[in-house]
Amino acid sequence: MFTVSSYSITRVAVMMHHTAYSTIVFDLDGTLLDTWPGLLQIVRHAAPGQARLDTAALRRALSLGIAPMFERAAAQLALSAPAAAAFVAGCAQHLPQQAPAYEGCETLLNTLRAAGLTLALCTNRDRASTLALLQARGWLAHFSHIHCLGDGLPAKPDPAPLLATLARLDCPPAQALFVGDSRIDAQCAANSGLTFAAHLGGYHSDLAELAPAALHYDHPRHLLRWLAQTHPRMLETEHG
Q1: CA proximity to 223, closest of 238, 203, 207, 208
Q2: Residue 167 sits in which domain range?
Q3: pLDDT the model gives residue 31
Q4: In a domain, 11, yes or no
Q5: Are 212 and 228 part of one and the same domain?
Q6: pLDDT digits (tens, 9 = 90+) for 115-150
Q7: Containing H/E element for 77?
Q8: Do residues 219 and 185 share a domain?
Q9: What InterPro entries does this protein map onto (predicted)?
Q10: Order of strands, edge to edge, in the sheet holding 176-180?
């Protein structure tokens, strides 16, 4: 059984690599699903009539988790402590049960599984809403392990949840790729010693937040082509 220890971090040249990964670990919000529009609608519905919100800051806060995003909104609204708690609780009661997938993610997951890779999920979202979103899309069967906020470990960017996910799958970090979209994900990958692939359509504010990423991609087909350098079967599966 693989055990967690310290690992060196190697910067990988963009679009060039020589590692045949056995496991791909994904973030959820901003990486596979665009959950932001539905969550913003909840915040706006719960906020006072003419309240002004810094939506860019809220979007970035989503990478910390849903509750931190709602707490940031409450702070922007300058609510008292009791009112802020009620605001966050009220928002949490109306979480969307569905969210659109980014274009190409369905094909991405199907292709990776068909190529024989193990897929996992490591998210700062709570388990109930994570499972609801995955069930709505029929994606639960894709993932061999799902780690959520509230599973007994610190949230990302602490390396514990990502390394625990790999330990559960008996996969050393050198054989795993972490795919995310935010500063939190980039830091978690660095803290864990994993290669990081960054989705550009997610919840970061600039490219500097995603460093050091081995790959920046705006469509999953670019991620597949990059992985196909060491997994030729992927492109055969994608086009077959």
Answers
A1: 238
A2: 23-34+99-234
A3: 98
A4: no
A5: yes
A6: 999 999 999 999 999 999 999 999 999 999 999 999
A7: none
A8: yes
A9: HAD-like_hydrolase_sf, HAD-like_sf, HAD-SF_hydro_IA, HAD_2, HAD_sf, PGP-like_dom2
A10: 145-149, 118-126, 23-26, 176-180, 195-199, 215-217
Taking only the tens place, the pLDDT of each residue in 175-194 is: 999 999 999 999 999 999 99
Residue showing tokens 């519905």: 45
Judgement on whether residues 179 and 150 belong to the same structural domain of the protein:
yes
Structure-derived torsion over alpha carbons of residues 151, 157, 168, 5, reported in degrees to the nearest 10: -130
CA distance 53 to 47: 9
Identity (one letter) of the amino acid at 123? T
Residue 198 near residue 178 (C-beta atoms within 8 A): no
Note whether residue 10 is domain-resident: no
Q: What percent of the chain shows pLDDT beyond 70?
A: 89
Q: Are 139 and 106 contained in the same domain? A: yes
Which tokens hold the place of 88?
């966050």
Picking from 186-190, 209-213, 232-236, which range would have the lowest pLDDT averaged per residue? Answer: 232-236
Return the pLDDT at 235: 58
What is the total count of domains within the chain?
A: 2
